[in-house]
Amino acid sequence: MAKKKAFPLRLPPEIIKAVEKWAADEFRSTNGQLEWIIYNALKKEGRLPKPPKEEEE
Hints:
Shape: elongated
Number of helices: 2
Distance between the termini: 25 Å
Number of strands: 0
Order of helices and strands: HH
Largest sheet: none
């Protein structure tokens, strides 16, 4: 499993409530929903790091 870095995140209560509801609607945890949102935003903007190229045998 990939290593994950924990860090504190401060958000207004209304945003947390909206994310919690969205997560529940999609059967995800709040943390999982935030990861999904961030991943999709990075993907949309072309900012995901390129996967490492596999070495040729």
